[in-house]
Amino acid sequence: xxxxxxxxxxxxxxxxxxxxxxxxxxxxxxxxxxxxxxxxxxxxxxxxxxxxxxxxxxxxxxxxxxxxxxxxxxxxxxxxxxxxxxxxxxxxxxxxxxxxxxxxxxxxxxxxxxxxxxxxxxxxxxxxxxxxxxxxxxxxxxxxxxxxxxxxxxxxxxxxxxxxxxxxxxxxxxxxxxxxxxxxxxxxxxxxxxxxxxxxxxxxxxxxxxxxxxxxxxxxxxxxxxxxxxxxxxxxxxxxxxxxxxxxxxxxxxxxxxxxxxxxxxxxxxxxxxxxxxxxxxxxxxxxxxxxxxxx
Length: 296
Known about the structure:
alpha+beta, 2 domains, about 35% helix, 10 helices, 5-stranded mixed sheet
């Protein structure tokens, strides 16, 4: 439909829909693209993302209770929909249906991992000083996936590089070497599944490496830590559209142990988020120095 718009310079396409139950759907991917744009703001029940596309959404914020009918009403601005109507629907339909069709909650079977606008609020101008300590996270994908390197300094300023295709692992290794020449690398944190041999080569070059298997035990606390760092605006992120897209494509996958960052389908790329997750986890877990004051 957008192809037909080129025939008239004043033409516009207006699409109206309820929230999608699955984020890995045409509408879910459109929303992810919209929320990955530089200008995204939430004011109460309204999210507005300006750019291409221009996105307007009325939804109940994640922190609001679905039993708060006044909050749900704010997400239903049509004057003929009353609080009484919404209360009746709350009792009449399953919670998932109410969340999707009346509260405009997206991906109710999966879950968004960041509040709208939280990522953009951290975008700035990261600064790095030659010789300073950094932590590097590496997540290597396969032929159809992306590979990413994310590095973080002590002030939680972030750098990132994303590669595609079979040569991704080689490009990741070379970038780590380049970073090691410029900065003091405290750790290269990696998933051993695809980066094991490369890590051994880096270790022989006296670059410190650390395995970080992508298990729930590791990834759940790391995901929570990264979420907190972004929501509290403690990170300074680069203005990188591809990086923002990886963040928008990621979902919160829940289990009995908690939730972790994951991707909704094999077609989506969230590798930069996994790399950043590992780097931030280790950068914030630096043991405090202990001063020796004497011997017993």
